[in-house]
Amino acid sequence: MYVCLCKGITDSQIRDAVCAGASSVRQVRKQLGVMSQCGKCGILTKEIVQETVEQRNLDASESLFYAAC
C-alpha cells in the first residue's frame, strides 16, 4: 500500500529499507525521501519502521540461520 503519496513510497519499500540496514525513521527518510514534503505519512512510516525493526531483531534472536529480511 502507498504510505507516502507525495513521493510514491510503499510500505514494502519502507520494510525493504529496514531489511537493508536502516534502523531508524531518520535513516529510512534519508534513503527514500519519505516524510519530506507534506508529512502526513509520518505516523504510519514510524509504525512500519518500528514493527519491522522489532520483527527483524526477534527473528535474528530466535535463529542464527533465519531472518525475516
UniProtKB/TrEMBL annotation:
Cofactor: [2Fe-2S] cluster
Gene3D superfamilies in alphabetical order: BFD-like [2Fe-2S]-binding domain (1.10.10.1100)
Family, as annotated: Belongs to the Bfd family.
GO MF, one example: metal ion binding
BFD-like [2Fe-2S]-binding domain segment(s): 2-51
Signal peptide: none
Protein name (database record): Bacterioferritin-associated ferredoxin
Native source species: Pseudoteredinibacter isoporae
